[in-house]
Amino acid sequence: MTVLPLSLDPDVMPFSEESLPTPNVPAATPLLDRDHSILAFNRRVLNWSERPEVPLLERLRYLCIVSSNLDEFFEVRAEPHVRACLEAQGTGPYTAESFDALSAAAHALVARQYQLYNDELLPAFAEHGIHVISHGKRNAAQRKWVQEYFEREVRPLLIPVALDPAHPFPQVANKSLNFIVKLSGKDAFGRENPIAILKVPRVLPRLIRMPAKVSEGKTLVVALSSIVRAHLHAMFPGREVGQFSQFRVTRHSDLAVDEEDVKNLRTALRQGLQHRNFGQAVRLEVSADCDESLWSFLLAQFNLPQGALYRVPGPVNLARFSQMVDLIDEPRFKDLRFTPYQASYPINLSTGQSFFDRLQRSDVLIHQPFESFDGVIEFLREAVADPQVLAIKQTIYRTGSDSVLMDLLREAVRRGKEVMAVVELKARFDEEANINWAEVLESIGAQVVYGVVGLKTHAKMLLVTRREGRHIRRYGHLSTGNYNPRTARLYTDISHLTADPQLTADMDALFVHLAGQSRLPKLQRLWVAPFDLHRNLVARIDALAEAAGEGKTTRIVAKMNALTDEALIAALLRAGSRGVKIDLIVRGACMLPAQVPGVSENIRVRSIIGRFLEHSRVFYFRVDEDESLYLSSADWMNRNMMRRVEVAWPVTHPVLRQRLIDECLVAYLHDGRDAWELEADGRYERVDRNLHAGEPGASRAIEAHGAQAALMGRYAFRGRGPGV
């Protein structure tokens, strides 16, 4: 079949219903700071909480997502900044000055969060009869119910610690809820010990729905912190409670294990997990009205500079307010949520048809979450059930603690198939789940390996080996995302099913390398980090620069989650200076200077923040009419290129390649609703406009388009399969 290439020029719209003209796309500044870029990304996510057209519970959800993201930011990125401030460092990548600048940006973002929470979201909830009710606003019946709940569910788990030489400051776990209390009077032994700490166990829900019998026809939610606060006096009989505050400390939580010096990585990581909750403190959150004597005491206790103090006018654990979305579940509140989206069954698949028969004809692409991840699950299910399947090999990075795919691998072992699982134990914050899966699979006879010492295995591969007559044939699945059915409903990713003998042979060679650590042979289709992926990308970009210098028409469009690798940035800048037209769709951190006069006028950067988390990695290169497109598990970050096992692979079928160009690149270059453009001064400006405004000959007004909304509409009419 001959397919005419769909132009990647923004003058051509991917969807036939409308045709949008070129948006005005400015861009960025020379080398942008990575950490500030991460905070800027979260500011863009927070914008969804600010939009009045977004359903109210979803606005709260985005607010909580930002809080969760900030928690991870502090856990992973803040420690060297804090250390630089404490040591008054004046030179190097981290200084006291850089800490102050980052702290100011983080404080501004947090202040905006609580302003939204208090001044917009809570009043909007109240208009719907939904209240987060404080102690001062509870009537007698409600106070009685709260007291009974406290005595029954909370008090038995609380142990207050009054500080003295025999009772030192207790270990406070990462991100846990605690109270600091100033007491007057003397203890049972006649001694003065004015400071007490009360730790609130994690097993208790942070939000509780009050029953209808005391809610007066309203929907009342009470925070656990409010319940504890109202009954602090009961925890210190014979003492008078004076100043007090809730507080939460965030700790550096990146696990550091010397893989060269441990005999069993799994055992070492499990031991390390026990200490993660008690790493170096990097942030302290207290109530806005916390007395200076208390917060200064806590800063000294955790050895933190004052810039690490966040005095917040509301709950210190704002991320946990995502529970409210689940508590408000009545049908009458359905308008406060997004209309549920049901993914269509993959358009290139038919239910009941054998995957092996289908893949012998041609490859299959699944665009998640617009198409259902069920296609991938059913592929593995058929492989497990097929008596002709001899072996199954799979990488496991983030599958979740409850995974149907892991259950299928266990069933494959039970049926006598050879199962090899490459389990990445160091997947950040998924270590425990992956350790558990490794132990389960090993216990039933699967071959479990942990990749290569010093590298994370981030590649997403599933390989099935099948006997067909006198021949052995391989079938593979490659993906830009994880084998996690839950996140497959929330992240945009591309799954690629193939029986291509060259591509599947490369996958098999990589599995052999990961298991035996033998020398990786020369591969035919796969680019693999840390071996040749980085080098090949730089070479491809430089080749386009040479072609542009020869007067050829050149184009690069790359979609990824982050761009921080300086060698790739330098290659892009070289190419742009030679005349290559470059569009970068980078969801999160981006350090590249774009459209800076005299530096990068030919490079544009935009970020798409939508209902789904943008996660697919798609790289497009064109010289005149010769075009190539790669999918990848890797972002353009140094860690992905040098310290991980990653893969990129070409999509050569013209129909499938054109579909990816259409849906993953062109659609996003025309997004007029959820896109942000990086300006030359380093700021992101939201694209929120009718892209047809002022277009000569325009016959009617057309609303701004969002790429994700357009794709949801496109697949809504493709028919419903099992869905997700």
Automatic annotation (TrEMBL):
Its EC number is 2.7.4.1. GO terms for biological process: polyphosphate biosynthetic process. Residues 142-323 form the Polyphosphate kinase middle domain. An intermediate of this reaction is the autophosphorylated ppk in which a phosphate is covalently linked to a histidine residue through a N-P bond. Residues 32-132 form the Polyphosphate kinase N-terminal domain. GO terms for molecular function: ATP binding; metal ion binding; polyphosphate kinase activity. GO terms for cellular component: polyphosphate kinase complex. ATP binds at N69, Y491, R587, H615. It is an enzyme of class 2 (transferase). It comes from the Bacteria. Its cofactor is Mg(2+). The active site is at H458 (phosphohistidine intermediate). It catalyses: [phosphate](n) + ATP = [phosphate](n+1) + ADP. InterPro entries: PP_kinase, PP_kinase_C_1, PP_kinase_middle, PP_kinase_middle_dom_sf, PPK_C_dom2, PPK_N_dom, PPK_N_dom_sf. It holds the Pfam family PP_kinase_C. Mg(2+) binds at R398, R428. The keyword Nuclease does not apply. HAMAP family: Polyphosphate_kinase. Catalyzes the reversible transfer of the terminal phosphate of ATP to form a long-chain polyphosphate (polyP). Belongs to the polyphosphate kinase 1 (PPK1) family. This is Polyphosphate kinase. It comes from Pseudacidovorax intermedius.
